[in-house]
């Protein structure tokens, strides 16, 4: 395993004049520096499980199930209404005296033969993340604390969080600045923006239309317009119609506000205070995740319904003394970061010096 803040995804090359393509199955996971480092954390976490004595397949299954656990219990639980989340996956008794996982939203989404991504989810509801993104992020202690040290998500120069290139120290993530950890202090971790109808400046006007980079008269450069147009092309129903179909009282929209499902879901969340999705958005998102987890024959919900991270022998061994669950004993994304050995605090980010080594990928 590679230690310290120089770790990067394995790449074809790390030199400036050669292709720096990441050697990963889905190149989209290298689209920006933060997602690339999450992918790297999973690679290193798998290596750590193997180093602890697990076979490749056993390590894969443990990490796969831990990921499912965290997605559902640490992520979906945060972004959806508590009442909706509590119904989405329920352990119910079966006629023969056992218990099994079931979803209260099978009528909204389920699959039993071929998995698919509902358009209402992928084109509208799950694009709530566009309102949560900040313009820039402070990345690590070595880079600096001030607002001027923060790295933009997009910019005209190379000083941004864009991906498809090797990771320099300035863009390396110090994880206690992004996730709640015992070493997080002051303004950290940096919080997401509200669930609402607003976009950060960096997402309002993008730089994607070739030959017209940055011009707000081109649809490809205006994220809101792209999302609305995509919904029209995909012939999505209106937000009000979806609410009625789900038997949820529709919210009121202003005369100048579109009833497009993407906008409606964001407006619904905003009307509820912006801490999580509203009822319609929560049902679509929770039902989709629940359906994918229940439909996957390899998920722990089907193979070992009573599985928990605490009951997994390999994770229990590595979590001795709460090494992986320092945050009130909970298994979160921070647990996978700790398992990976990636830098989580300022002590692991010495000040940058001239002649710093080139980032390397996992062994």
Rg measurement, Å: 22 Å
Quote the distance from N terminus to C terminus: 5 Å
Main sheet specs:
2 strands, antiparallel
The helicity comes to 25-40%
Tell me what portion of residues adopts beta-strand conformation. under 5%
The counted number of beta strands is 4
Characterise the protein shown here:
The chain has helices at residues 33-51, 56-79, 82-88, 119-124, 201-204, 223-233, 239-245, 261-271, 279-295, 300-303, 313-318, 333-340, and strands at 90-93, 99-102, 136-137, 151-152. The strands form two sheets. Strands 1-2 form a two-stranded antiparallel ribbon. It has twelve helices and four strands, in the order αααββαββαααααααα. α1 (33-51) packs across α2 and α1 (33-51) packs across α12 (333-340). It starts with 32 loop residues before the first helix and ends in a 23-residue tail after the last helix. It is globular and about 55 Å long. It is mainly alpha-helical and 363 residues long. Residues 353-361 have low confidence and may be disordered.
Descriptors for this entry?
single chain, 363 residues, two-stranded antiparallel sheet, 34% helix, disordered C terminus
Task: Provide a short characterization of the protein structure.
The protein is mainly alpha-helical and 363 residues long.
SSE topology sketch:
Blueprint (H helix, E strand, L loop, with lengths): L32 H19 L4 H24 L2 H7 L1 E4 L5 E4 L16 H6 L11 E2 L13 E2 L48 H4 L18 H11 L5 H7 L15 H11 L7 H17 L4 H4 L9 H6 L14 H8 L23
């Amino acid at each position: 395993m590679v230690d310290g803040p120089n770790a990067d995804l394995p790449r074809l090359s790390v030199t400036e004049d050669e292709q720096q393509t990441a050697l990963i199955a889905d190149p989209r996971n290298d689209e920006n520096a933060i997602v690339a480092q999450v992918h790297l954390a999973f690679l290193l976490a798998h290596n750590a499980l193997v180093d602890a004595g697990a076979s490749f397949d056993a390590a894969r299954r443990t990490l796969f199930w831990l990921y499912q656990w965290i997605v559902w219990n640490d992520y979906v639980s945060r972004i959806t209404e508590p009442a909706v989340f509590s119904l989405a996956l329920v352990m119910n008794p079966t006629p023969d005296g056992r218990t099994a996982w079931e979803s209260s939203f099978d009528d909204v989404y389920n699959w039993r033969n071929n998995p698919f991504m509902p358009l209402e989810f992928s084109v509208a509801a799950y694009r709530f993340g566009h309102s949560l993104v900040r313009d820039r992020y402070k990345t690590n202690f070595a880079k600096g604390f001030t607002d001027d040290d923060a790295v933009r998500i997009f910019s005209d120069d190379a000083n941004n969080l864009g991906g498809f290139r090797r990771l320099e120290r300035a863009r390396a993530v110090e994880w206690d600045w992004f996730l709640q950890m015992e070493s997080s202090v002051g303004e950290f971790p940096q919080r997401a923006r509200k669930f609402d109808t607003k976009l950060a400046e960096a997402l309002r006007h993008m730089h994607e239309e070739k030959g017209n980079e940055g011009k707000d008269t081109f649809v490809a450069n205006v994220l809101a317009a792209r999302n609305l147009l995509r919904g029209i092309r995909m012939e999505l129903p209106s937000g009000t119609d979806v609410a009625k179909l789900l038997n949820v009282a529709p919210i009121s929209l202003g005369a100048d506000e579109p009833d497009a499902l993407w906008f409606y879901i964001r407006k619904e969340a905003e009307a509820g205070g912006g801490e999580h999705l509203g009822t319609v958005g929560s049902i679509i998102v929770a039902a989709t995740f629940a359906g994918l987890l229940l439909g996957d024959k390899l998920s722990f919900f089907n193979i070992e319904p009573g599985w928990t991270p605490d009951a997994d022998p390999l994770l229990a061994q590595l979590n001795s003394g709460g090494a992986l669950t320092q945050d009130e004993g909970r298994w979160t994304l921070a647990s996978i970061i700790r398992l990976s050995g990636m830098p989580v605090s300022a002590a692991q980010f010495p000040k940058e010096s001239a002649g710093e080594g080139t980032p390397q990928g996992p062994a």
